[in-house]
Amino acid sequence: MNEASLLLLTIFLPLAGALLMWQVGRFGQHAARSFALLVTVATFGLTAVVVVGFPGGSDAYAVTNVAWVGGEAGSTLDIRLNVGLDGLGVWMFGLSALLMVTSVLVSWEAIRDRAGLFYGMLLLLEFGCLGVFAARDIMLFYVFFEFTLIPLFFLIGIWGSEDRRYAAMKFFIFTLAGSVLTFLGLIAIVLWDYYHAGNGVLRFSIPDLVASLQIHPIQPISWQVLIFVALFAGFAIKVPLFPVHTWLPLAHVQAPTAGSVILAGILLKIGTYGFVRFSIPMLPDAAVIAMPWVLWLAVLGIVYGALVALAQTDMKRLIAYSSVSHLGFCMLGLFAFNPLGLQGGTLQMVSHGLSTGGLFAVVGMLYERYHTREIRELGGLAKRVPWLAFFMLIFTFSSIGLPGLNGFVGEVMVLIGMFQRAWTAAPEASQTSLRIVSVLAVTGVVLGAWYMLWLVQRVFFGPLKEPNHHAGNARDHDQPVQDIGWREFFALAPLVVFIVWIGLQPDVFLSRMGPTLEQVAETTKEQLSRVR
Amino acid sequence: MYVDLETIKLLWPELILVLLASWIYIGGTVQQSRLWWTLFSLAGYLVAGYAVFSGEALLWSGANAGDAYVGSGPLAVDYLGYVMRLFAIGIGFLFALIASSAARRELASELLATLMLLAAGLMLVARANDLVFLFVSLELVSIPTYVLLYLGRRDRATSEAAVKYFFLSILSSGMLLYGITMLYGIAGTTIISGADDSIQAAMLGGSSLVELAPIALILILAGLGFKITAVPFHFYAPDVYQGATNANAGLLAVAPKIAGVLALIRLVVVAMPTVSDYAWQLTIVLALLTMTLGNVCALWQQNIRRMLAYSSIAHAGYMLIGISVALATNGSHGGVSATLFYLIVYAFGSLGTFAALVSLSSEQREISTLEELAGLGKTRPLAAAAIAVCMFSLAGIPPLAGFWGKLTLFSSAVGLALDPESSSLTFWFVLLALGGAVNAAIAAAYYLRVVAALYFQSSKIAITAGGRHTASLAMGFSALVVIAVGVLPRSVMSETERAEAVSAQSRLAIQRAVNVDQIAVTAISAVGQIPAPQD
Question: What secondary structure letter does DSSP report for B397?
Answer without folding.
Answer: -
